[in-house]
């Protein structure tokens, strides 16, 4: 989480920045959704093959352990399989979708500030959390 203050000369400038963030987030989300489809397909094939092999061997399918260990605040998955990757990508997709929604709401919330575009002598300082505006300070210069 990165919180920073950025200074803008107009509400349009803030809106343009948010529009770029929205566009970038949509692009990133699209890439992850494509990867998600590929990994989901691979995970399903892997599951079917495993079921067939286990059935031929006459064994019950055991719940797979993730082989996951924690190292500080980082989880490490040993011998990752398609299911591990699927879980990771699904988490990233959810996060990107949430980011997109928050950005779109912020963009809509800025509409009333567009009336400041014709006002000289104002500086707009925006407190941003990971590129998402959370607070706008209007300063008269």
List keywords for this structure.
141 residues, three-stranded antiparallel β-sheet, two-stranded antiparallel ribbon
Description:
The chain is an alpha+beta fold and 141 residues long. The chain has a domain at 14-111. It has two helices and five strands, in the order βαββαββ. The chain has helices at 11-57, 82-109, and strands at residues 3-8, 68-71, 74-77, 122-129, 132-140. The strands form two sheets. Strands 1-4-5 form a three-stranded antiparallel β-sheet. A two-stranded antiparallel sheet has the order 2-3. A hairpin with a 2-residue loop joins strand 2 and strand 3. The longest helix is centred in the first third of the chain and has 47 residues, at 11-57. The radius of gyration is 23 Å and the shape is elongated.
How many β-strands, per DSSP? 5
Mean pLDDT: 87
Beta fraction: 15-25%
Biggest beta-sheet profile: 3 strands, antiparallel
Rg over CA atoms, rounded to whole Å, is 23 Å
Number of helices: 2
| Structural class assignment | alpha+beta
Q: Helix and strand succession?
A: EHEEHEE
Fraction of helical residues: 40-55%
Sequence stretches where pLDDT stays below 50 over 5 or more residues: none
Alpha-carbon distance between the termini?
Answer: 31 Å
* Quaternary structure annotation: single chain
Spatial arrangement of strands, main beta sheet: 1-4-5
Shape: elongated
Report a brief summary of the structure.
It contains two helices and five strands.
Topology:
Layout: E1 3-8, H1 11-57, E2 68-71, E3 74-77, H2 82-109, E4 122-129, E5 132-140
Antiparallel strand pairs: 1-4, 2-3, 4-5
Helix pairs in contact: 1-2
């Amino acid at each position: 989480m990165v919180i920073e203050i950025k200074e803008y000369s107009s509400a349009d400038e803030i809106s343009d920045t948010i529009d770029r963030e929205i566009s970038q987030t949509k692009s990133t989300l699209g890439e992850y959704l494509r990867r998600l489809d590929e990994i989901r397909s691979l995970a399903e094939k892997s599951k079917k093959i495993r079921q067939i092999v286990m059935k031929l061997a006459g064994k019950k399918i055991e719940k797979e352990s993730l082989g996951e260990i924690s190292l500080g605040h980082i989880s490490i998955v040993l011998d990752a399989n398609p299911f591990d990757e699927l879980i990771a990508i699904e988490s990233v997709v959810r996060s990107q979708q949430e980011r997109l929604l928050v950005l779109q709401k912020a963009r809509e919330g800025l509409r009333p500030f567009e009336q400041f575009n014709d006002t000289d002598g104002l500086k707009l300082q925006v407190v941003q959390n990971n590129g998402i505006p959370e607070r706008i300070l209007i300063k008269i210069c």
